[in-house]
Amino acid sequence: TPQINVVALSRATLVNVPEERLKVTGPMLLNQAYFFGSPGMNYYDGPDYGAGALQDTINYNFGVSTDRFLVIDFQAFVKFIDAIGGIEVNLPTYVDDMPSSYFPAGIQTLDGAQALTLSRVRSKYSDLARIDNQTIVIKGIFERLKNPLMIVKLPKIIESLQDSYKTNIPGDQLANLICLLPTLKSENVQFYNPSVDLITTDYEFIPNMNQQMEIFRWDQRLVDWINESLYAKPNP
Q: Which of 33, 78, 136, 140 is the most buried (most CB within 10 A)?
């Protein structure tokens, strides 16, 4: 059965450092793994720089091995959404980030810049709310890509953005993924976001930042949820 399960992990998740590969003092926030693995930082002793450091950190903390990665920068994100003609989203409630931005509740079409803005809203909202917004945007992208006309254009769009993303997905696997998209039913693309009962908001002194930071604590229940979500079957 063609199926995609999308499992979101908050950047504010407090994690332990895989010390054999990443030479920084922990604990740290999950998104810092990518930062410390970046080229020129010289903290990570492994392949694929930031993506590799993040893969190792996820595996070390949650026991989840990842085979492939795709890293997209802001410029590519905006250009990609514009190239596919924008996306349609349906917001369950308004998103107020004034004076920077405001999105009304309901169905609306976003261009690339608007989609990026919605995905990054956080000044008045929690990190979990930001994950919810990002999920809505990703759903909009998937729905747009199911259009056969988009599938035809997709290889050239990806080629035009090749300097703005990083991946270790082989070309033949990427081609197979593109061919798979039109066959996916909406119910076979499932999104899983961590609920408030799986994490606890707290503050922790982060040594590499030398300050107290807001973090999410977790226990074995989150690990179980991640694995159950990754392998969940579509609803009948």
A: 33
- End-to-end Cα distance, the chain: 12
How many angstroms separate the Cα of 42 from the Cα of each of 11, 22, 58, 77? 22, 9, 20, 27
Could you give phi then psi for residue 49, rounded to 5 degrees?
50, -130
Beta bridge partners of 189: 4
Whole-angstrom distance, CA of residue 2 vs CA of residue 101: 37
Tokens matching residue 176: 């197979």
* Both tokens assigned to 179: 């061919």
Q: How many CA atoms lie within 13 A of 86 on its CB side?
A: 8
Q: Which residues pair with 206 in a beta bridge?
A: 211
Give CA torsion, residues 177, 186, 120, 205, to 10 deg.
-80
Q: Identify which of 75, 80, 196, 58 has the alpha carbon closest to the alpha carbon of residue 137.
A: 80
pLDDT in tens, the chain (236 residues): 778 899 999 999 999 999 999 999 999 999 999 999 999 999 999 999 999 999 999 999 999 999 999 999 999 999 999 999 999 999 999 999 888 899 999 999 999 999 999 999 877 777 888 889 999 999 999 899 888 888 888 888 888 888 889 999 998 898 888 888 888 888 888 999 999 999 999 999 999 999 999 999 999 999 999 999 999 998 76
Q: Is 101 helix (H, G, I), strand (E, B) or coil?
A: strand
Report the alpha-carbon distance of residue 152 to residue 183 in Å, rounded.
Answer: 14
CA atoms of 37 and 210, how far apart (whole Å): 19
Contact 112, 77 (CB under 8 A): yes
Is the bond preceding 99 in cis, omega lying within 30 degrees of 0? yes
